[in-house]
């Protein structure tokens, strides 16, 4: 999925081993603030290396946000910043001179990642006039032409990449979709033609050996991270790298998103561990770098809120908790694929995010305790989504050739690198073992999340629920005590400054691309 919010900037580095391309990425808080203000003003807030590897580095900012890449398009090359999105499949860029780019930010416009002037590129070629059309659940979209041109990424050059040129639309931030090509925008809008998107074109041109890449976002406070096309970096994770199946959607019967079996959730603090799901629990969840938060089944999310002393605030459409909760040493533990599958432990500090007003004023509770946002929300009737608040703690390998996801506990802030390329097309994930006896799931959810609403399945029936009691949670006391030992609850209320001017930099669900296959996965 993709969003306009909290865009990140990326620098370029060349991968260190054969058959991989590595890419650095960064967030720009100025772009973040501009985009948030633009969306508030227009009242459109969305709810919710070398020859065979390519690496792009990522840079993060504590204010939160999504990840983007510094790339080039055309001859001579033109620099742009595109948001990286594993939940959609098209690379598209805003056209220079388009209405959205010429509209001031304060009026809901602007193109902070730059624009592409196709008239100055000698290698520009239209291949689908008027055929590019991607829509999002908030009613916005981008439309124009499909074209081919030279595309530069991570020090490598893709000579003939097909992309979308946004001539008309409400979105000013270009997107680098790297999902399955079966969910390209033209496929979802009725054109059954599937073209070679960025990962496929990298394989076709011999830049990488297999249709795969790995993502290392690093921690919330770090300044570096990377996406590595065509390989893995064994220095970026600890413990076992375990692969799990990727499952199809019920609607299309094909794999169109990175849907895995989410099978357990627990909370661990200094005062104990609580199991928040039953032994038989299994539900479909999508791993999506284009979503800032993590969206859990409503009943499970409520248990997390109870553990952490968090509370939903309707005025902000955000879940709020004391900032000092992030100083605890506890974790929320996410399990996949059933018994023997990978378990990713997310430190609480990775889930506690800044909450400020547009003038930089920090939000506080009525007793002046600093208030922050929790990076977990209830999904409502949306698919269960694991966004950046989860992904920062996981080293994730996306193996599109074999429909598998590799997961391991990330190593934060490591500076060394040991890149291992996929040796051939369709080769298994290097160094990975396979989760045994995996629980099978199918993606069926559809719709837009409404915090506090009852989740429903796509056929209208009530979704399965699990309702452990919120009392007697042994881990809760370890999460909800302040550094001074004084307990604090979000129920005391936030200081009543102008609600509409609070910038909740990471609460908004990313705009869900129909092309990403997540709008109606029946």
UniProtKB/TrEMBL annotation:
Superkingdom classification of source: Eukaryota
InterPro entries: Aspartic_peptidase_A1 (IPR001461), Aspartic_peptidase_AS (IPR001969), PEPTIDASE_A1 (IPR033121), Peptidase_aspartic_dom_sf (IPR021109), SAP-like (IPR033876)
Cross-referenced Pfam families: Asp
GO biological process: proteolysis
The Peptidase A1 domain, residue ranges: 67-408
A GO term for molecular function: aspartic-type endopeptidase activity
Active site: 85, 288
CDD domains: SAP_like
Region forming the signal peptide: 1-18
Keywords: Aspartyl protease, Hydrolase, Membrane, Protease, Signal, Transmembrane, Transmembrane helix
Family: Belongs to the peptidase A1 family.
Protein name per its UniProtKB record: Probable aspartic-type endopeptidase OPSB
């Amino acid at each position: 999925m993709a969003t306009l919010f909290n865009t990140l900037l990326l620098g370029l580095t060349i991968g260190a081993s054969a058959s991989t391309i590595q890419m650095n990425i960064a967030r720009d808080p100025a772009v973040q603030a501009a985009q948030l203000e633009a969306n508030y003003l227009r009242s459109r807030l969305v709810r919710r290396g070398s020859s065979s590897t390519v690496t792009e580095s990522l840079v993060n900012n504590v204010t939160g946000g999504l990840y983007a890449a510094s790339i080039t398009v055309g001859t001579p090359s033109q620099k742009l910043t595109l948001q990286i999105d594993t939940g959609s499949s098209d690379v598209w860029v805003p056209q220079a001179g388009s209405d959205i780019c010429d509209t001031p930010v304060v009026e809901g416009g602007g193109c902070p990642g730059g624009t592409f002037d196709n008239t100055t590129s000698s290698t520009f070629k239209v291949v689908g006039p008027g055929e590019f059309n991607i829509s999002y659940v908030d009613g916005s979209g981008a439309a124009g032409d499909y074209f081919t041109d030279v595309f530069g990424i991570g020090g490598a050059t893709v000579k003939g990449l097909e992309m979308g040129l946004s001539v008309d639309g409400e979105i000013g931030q270009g997107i680098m979709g790297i999902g399955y090509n079966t969910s390209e925008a033209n496929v979802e809008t009725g054109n059954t033609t599937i073209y070679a998107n960025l990962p496929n074109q990298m394989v076709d041109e011999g830049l990488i050996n297999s249709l795969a890449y790995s993502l290392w976002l690093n921690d919330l406070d770090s300044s570096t991270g990377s996406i590595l096309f065509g390989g893995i970096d064994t220095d970026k994770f600890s413990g076992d790298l375990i692969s799990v199946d990727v499952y199809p959607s019920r609607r299309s019967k094909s794999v169109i998103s990175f849907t895995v079996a989410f099978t357990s959730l627990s909370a661990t603090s200094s005062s104990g561990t609580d199991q928040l799901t039953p032994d038989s629990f299994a539900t479909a969840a999508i791993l999506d770098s284009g979503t800032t938060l993590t969206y859990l089944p409503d009943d499970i999310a409520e248990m997390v809120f109870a553990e952490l002393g968090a509370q939903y605030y309707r005025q902000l459409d955000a879940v709020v908790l004391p900032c000092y909760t992030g100083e605890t040493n506890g974790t929320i533990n996410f399990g996949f694929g059933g018994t023997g599958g990978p378990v990713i432990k997310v430190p609480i500090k990775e889930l506690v995010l800044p909450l400020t007003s547009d003038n930089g004023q920090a939000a506080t509770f009525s007793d002046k305790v600093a208030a922050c946002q929790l990076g977990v929300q209830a999904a409502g009737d949306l698919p269960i989504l694991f966004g950046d608040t989860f992904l920062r703690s996981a080293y994730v390998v996306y193996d599109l050739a074999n429909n598998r996801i590799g997961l391991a506990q990330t190593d934060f802030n490591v500076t060394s690198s040991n890149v291992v390329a996929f040796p051939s097309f369709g080769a298994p994930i290097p160094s990975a073992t396979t989760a045994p006896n995996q629980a099978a799931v199918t993606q069926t959810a559809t719709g837009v999340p409404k915090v506090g609403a009852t989740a429903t399945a796509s056929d209208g029936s009530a979704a399965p629920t699990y309702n452990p009691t919120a009392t007697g949670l042994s881990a809760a006391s370890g999460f909800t005590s302040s550094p001074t030992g004084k307990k604090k609850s979000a129920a005391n209320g936030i200081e009543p400054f102008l609600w509409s001017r609070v910038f909740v930099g990471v609460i908004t669900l990313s705009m869900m691309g129909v092309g990403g296959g997540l709008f109606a996965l029946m």
